[in-house]
Amino acid sequence: MKISTKGRYALRVMIDLAINSNGKYISLKDIAERQEISNKYLEQIIALLNKAEYLETARGNTGGYKLSKQPKEYKVGDILRATEGDLTPIYCLTEDGKCNRQKDCKTYSFWKGLDNVINEYVDSKTLEDLIK
Amino acid sequence: MKISTKGRYALRVMIDLAINSNGKYISLKDIAERQEISNKYLEQIIALLNKAEYLETARGNTGGYKLSKQPKEYKVGDILRATEGDLTPIYCLTEDGKCNRQKDCKTYSFWKGLDNVINEYVDSKTLEDLIK
DNA sequence: GAATTCCCTACTAAATTAGTAGTATAATAA
DNA sequence: TTATTATACTACTAATTTAGTAGGGAATTC
Is the CB atom of residue A23 positioned under 7 angstroms from any atom of strand D? Predict the structure, then answer.
């Protein structure tokens, strides 16, 4: 039960962008260097953040990325879900995972509760909270 | 970020033992049948619970397993940790996972907090809670 | 002593994770 | 207009983890 590098790196990227923002676009290369993450792998992670419309991007010589919102407007939970997929700790709780034992499953509500505390926690923190 | 079958099955085994307890030993075969889990795989899971001294066992014809304590004396968290390994959602928080960026890591305390809510939740529930 | 049970270790197929690699596309600046 | 620098997209791959299988052996009871 681990958060993968995708979620962890994504969070670091977002923090990096928040801290180093100066109005200009910040290149992937710069982020990768500061964060010591492979260029090519970071591309894929940023692609996920981009698809979720968390970033503004520009190509070309002065291109790069910047946050599309204020740090306090990003819930950490949203960043993680965009990169990790869902944070549901149990397959049974997902849409595809419904099983025929569910009706009298003694563990279901326990797992549901775990899912709740996890999501409530990650959604209670914003990017701004992490920076300070 | 998922709980594996080991933890999920282990919890179902413990509940099965709690519900079907009648003073006698309950065979792995019976549990496996009721829970629709492969005999051989279940053996391995039970071995972990056994190693943690959560079960009493007996061999031979009337042998099997029973709980070594009352249901309310088992924290669900303990059952999961015995079978899943630790529940720490981030490698960095474990003994082996300390990294050289930790001193000014902006995410560390966030992850620590997540670790806390998870462990507090699973430790707040006992086997008895799940049965009722 | 045959049947039934737990005990222990090794192996393996499938899925997931953590990347590499290569190419195309867009923008800028000389 | 062309070289340079950047993002965008897709395919592939090595390593690890997960979810089991398989095959003995040892204890106990009938």
Answer: no
